[in-house]
Every structure is written in C-alpha cells, then in structure tokens.
Amino acid sequence: MSTWRPISPPPLWKRCLPGFLHGPVKLAFILGLAGAVVLSGLAFFYFMLAMRFDLDEVARLPAGTVFYDRKGVEITAPGASGRKLVTRAEIPEFLVKSLLAREDARFFDHHGVDLRGLARATVRNIRDRDFTQGASTLSMQLARNSFDIRQKSLHRKFLEIALTLRLEKHYTKDEILTHYLNRIYFGAGAYGIEQAARTYFGKTTRDLGDSECAIIVGIIRGPHAFSPVRNPEKALNQRGQTLNRMVAMGFIDQARRDAIAAEPLKLASGEETGGNQTSYALKAIDNELERILDDSRRPPGGLHVHTTLDAAWQARLETELNHAVHALEGEKSWPHPAPKNHAPGTDTGYLQYAAVTTETKTGAVLALIGGRDFNHSRFDRTRSTRDLGSAFEPFVAAAAAERGKLVLPGKPVQTGRQIGPAEVERLAKRCGIAGPFLQTEDLFRGSVAATPMEMSVGLATLGNQGKRPKPFFIREIRDAAGEVIYTAKPQLTAALSPHAALEAASVLSRENRTRTFTGATGSERDAWTLRLGPSGATAIWIGFDKPTPIAPEKRLNSLLDEFVKRLGNG
To answer: How confident is the model over 88-135, as pLDDT tens digits?
Structure first.
C-alpha cells in the first residue's frame, strides 16, 4: 500500500527564472561561494602573516647606513648629523598640503587602501601585462618602507595591504603622515624630513619656507633624479608640478603659485648643513651608492657599505698636505696673505689642494681629497681640470714608446716630435686624460689640462702594464640582514702595450720601488706631484681656485720634494 506525500513547490528563484537558467545560476552560486571561501582564506593568511611584524618599529628612528674602509674599520658616515624624528607640530602645514596634493589626495578619506586608485591601477597593469602602476597611498608606502617589502609581486602587494590595514588601526592619520616623513629617503644620503631639510637648506623642518616644502615633496618620487644638488633644473620642475597640483586641489590660488615658483633655489653651504657629509671622499661614496642602488632598490636604511678607502693612507695624505701648505704660507716671503676672519676654502686667496690615490690593478680609490676644508667648500677639485706642464711628460713618452720611438727622459719636445701632437693626444686619451689638447709642439711641453682624478687613473695605467682601470669607491654592499646585495667588478681597458707603459714610467724619478715627479707649471699657477708606488698611483695638485702664481718655481719644487720624502716609499 503506497503512502501519498505532497510534492514540495520549487524554490522561489527557480519559479522566477526560466528553466534553462537554473543550471547556470546554481553553478554561479557555487563558484561565488567557493570564491568567498578562498578570499576569506587568503585574507586570514595575510592577516596572520602581517601579525608577525612589530608595528612599533614604524615610529622608531630607522637604522643608518654604516661605512667601512677596505680593512673593515668603520668610518664616519655622510648624513650622520640631523638624524632625528620630528613631531607633527614641527611639520609646516604647507608641507602637508604639498604632500597630499602630490602623493595621496584622498589620504584623510580612505582607510589605508584607496579602492578607486587600486582598481584603476589593476586595470592598467592587466593591460600592460606588468606591474607598472602601484596605486600606493601614504599608508602603503609607509608599510613598504618600514618593513622593506619591495619586490613587485601579488604576494608583496597582498602583504602590503594587510600591513597597511593594521597600520591604520594602530596609528592616527597624523601619526602615519609624520612617521612617513620621518622614514623615507630624500636623496643625498638624507633619511627623513629633518635630515633632508638640513642637507638641502640648512634649516630645521619647522623653518622650511613654502618653496622649500614644495621642492622637498618633489624629490620623493625620484630622490636621485630630482635632487636639487645634483639636478637643480629637475628639482625646480618638480616644484612646479607640485604647485600645479595644489592649485588643482584648491590649496592655493594661481597668484600664490606663481609667486612661489618665482623664488630662486637657495641651497645650504657646508657650514649650514651642520657637516651632514663629512668629507669629499664620503660625498663621492654616497654619490656612487645612489648610482648603484636606484630609488626602487634602496632599502630604508641599515646598509653596510664596504668602501675601497684606506683610512690610514687618507689621513696620512691629508696630514702631509696640510703640513706642506701651512709651511709655504708661513714663510716671510709668502705673497698671498689670507683674508682675516675667513676660514680656508671661503676665499680665492687661500691655497688649495686635491689628491687621488687609485689602486693600479683594480681602480679602487684608496684616498680622495677634494680640497682644504669640505665644510667651507664642497667643490671637489679632483674633478676640476688644471694645466699640467711638465707633469704631462710620462704620457708623451708613452705615445712615443707605443710607436716604437726613442724615449728621451727630460726632453719631452724631442720625444714628441718623433710622432706628432695628434698621436700624443690619441694615446693620452686612451690613458684616461680627456684634454683639451693643443695641436702644436706646445703640447709636448705640457700645454694640456687634466683633473687629478684623470692623472691618477693615467698614472695607474702606466703602473698596470698599460691596462687602464675604471675608478670606483664601493667594494660591497650588504643589507641590514647581512645579505650581499652588490659586489664590485673591477673594469680594465687595454690602453697601451706593457713595454710602452714601462718606458713611460721610466721618466719619473725612482726611489726604491716608488717613482715620483714633482714640479710647477711654467706659469707657476699649478704644482703637481705624481707618485707611482708598488700598488697605488697618486696624483696631487696644489694651486688657487682662481689661477694665480703660487710662489717661485724653485722654492715650490723644493717644498714638493720635501713633501714626497715625508710621504716615504709605502
């Protein structure tokens, strides 16, 4: 006997839809449910991953970059001074508005992730098939800079978002903005807004003017490319773009924008920065560091940079050069009395010097002195061309020997006549001397200009069997975890034959294993000392920034000879 059971009516959604849509709708529901489960799982995974990070680290002073000499001895880092955390009250309102206009217009409206911007960037990335757009808010940039999550991948982006949401819960908007400005890199070795203000303008953050605020904000997108020290025109262009955005957002009117844009760029002197970069050598190292690690690869501090400098030799060169120059200026017959109440380097009346030592076999720069006092004059004289005079003779000899001609020590004119000025110029350029060169026999007498850096490299070429080394300052870079992120590879270029290099070096005076040259130019405006040792090539220039006769040639040569003896044969 069968039991009758009432037939249940179909669900409402089935009654409302045609039969052919029942299958697809059911499948969509199942897929949506599965997707929600997957997304919930991903969200939980990245939330738990983000929980491993200590958010209190965001508010602390970032670790500084530590520099070491070639023997592992720590040396003073550029940018050591001015590293401090500023408070929100110390940040000018114009700087805040500049930052919002340029970097994150909806900062106070979103909760760390700008969904509109993220959607727009996602569409662009899909179209470009690459991570060309990031849609990073200030909060996201702070998370990325604080915990060094820089690799471009979906995993990095999801982790960054999870950390950003935690940051927004942990800190107020004003705290996030302040921590962001305290932590990011502004170029020229400056981490954080306070150090940037001191480095570029010699001011505290509180005292920055409107133009300076706009310039500093403009630096953020390209600390290396838009540095006002390195690229003043590009820095001013970025200032203009920042001001334009402020006008578009209603922060300032067009008249105020034009008035600020008309202000000239006024950068700080060495004294005003508080000695932010402590020497010419450290400035050169930091410049190379910026070239090696572009803005997207530079970690937020904690770098360990192993340089090529020999700190002991650097100190020795500085000591002996100071001794020699002071001895010359202390003579009764010294014709250039220093202006009163001025420090060396602030007036052309002061005698200056520059020196470079390059390791012959690799090009590693062992010492660099760009002037008498970095804090009073940042101008690096190792990059400034000066007349060579008789210091050019080794390269005349190199050209003659390369062409199989006789080298006549002490007779550069007779040596050069055998091959002509054009051939001497060609060989000198191959040794690293850029000129300009005269196309007459005066070239053999030294009517050519070169920088101390070029002379050091050229001399190293003679000491390296004719192979010209490319100078460099950094051997290795490690991150905060000790991982190697860069290792230098010496670069050598064949410039002339080993025989020609040996013949050229023979025109220098010999003392044990060291060959030297000392002499003033015929005009007595420049004095050179060349020193080719067993492992390093040193070029030293002495003179005035504004070419002026120094002292009688005989007295000057005597002083330089004494200086070379004091240096010894090491």
So the answer is: 999 999 999 999 999 999 999 888 888 776 666 556 555 655 544 456
Work out whether strand 66-68 and strand 304-307 pair parallel, antiparallel, or are unpaired: parallel
Tokens of 141: 């940039």
- CA angle, 564 then 567 then 570, to 5°: 115
Nearest C-alpha neighbor of 95 from the set 210, 191, 178, 263: 210
Q: Decide if 137 contacts 110 (C-beta within 8 A).
A: yes
> Are the beta carbons of 336 and 548 closer than 8 angstroms?
yes
Domains along the chain? 55-62+80-278 (1.10.3810.10), 319-376+385-472+493-567 (3.40.710.10)
Percentages helix, strand, coil for the chain, rounded to the nearest 5? Answer: 45, 15, 40
Distance CA 276, CA 77 (A): 9
Q: What stretch of H or E contains 254? A: helix 254-261
Give all strands (DSSP E) within 22-170, no chain letters: 66-68, 74-75
- Dump pLDDT digits (tens) for 352-369: 999 999 999 999 999 999
Q: At what angle do helices 93-103 and 138-147 cross, to 10 degrees?
A: 90
Q: Which tokens hold the place of 5?
A: 């059971």
Asked if residue 187 lies in contact with residue 290, where contact means CB atoms within 8 angstroms, the answer is yes
Whether cis (ω within 30° of 0) applies to the bond prior to 498 is no
Secondary element (H or E) of residue 375: none
